[in-house]
Design brief:
By secondary structure, the protein is mostly helical. It has seven helices and no strands. Helix 1 packs across helix 2 and helix 2 packs across helix 3. The longest helix is centred in the N-terminal third of the chain and has 24 residues.
Length: about 130
């Protein structure tokens, strides 16, 4: 008898990670805004795009497991307060998706961005 090939159902995996990520976002909204997440078709598509991008980043690091992708999403929301004020106000998933590269870059730097006036002053002080 041939040995059966173990197949993972990628559609089920995708649905599972999507549901879990929506739950993470919902908890983020409740804890920060005392309101539940509002998910419509546009926001749902944005979450799928966010997850796809995070999966690509995790794959570059060598581990694109569901757990790692969800941990990346959790990290973003956990460190939301470290973002510059403009990005902190961009809380819809569609806004987060369009600013994702900037959000990740700021979190990598692990410091909130200074405002323009502070940048100008810093140049003159040197």
């Amino acid at each position: 008898k041939p040995i059966p090939v173990a197949k993972t159902d990628t559609k089920t995996d995708t649905k599972t990670i999507y549901k879990m990520s929506i739950d993470i976002y919902h908890k983020f909204c409740l804890s920060n805004f005392d309101a539940p997440a509002k998910i419509d078709a546009v926001q749902g598509k944005a979450m799928k795009t966010i997850l796809s991008y995070l999966k690509t980043l995790c794959k570059q690091k060598g581990d694109d497991s569901q757990e790692n992708i969800l941990n990346a999403l959790k990290y973003i929301f956990k460190n939301w307060k470290n973002l510059e004020p403009f990005l902190q106000k961009q809380v819809k998933l569609s806004q987060i998706n369009s600013n994702l590269v900037n959000i990740i870059q700021q979190l990598k730097e692990n410091k909130p961005s200074n405002n323009i006036a502070d940048d100008i002053l810093a140049k003159y002080r040197q």
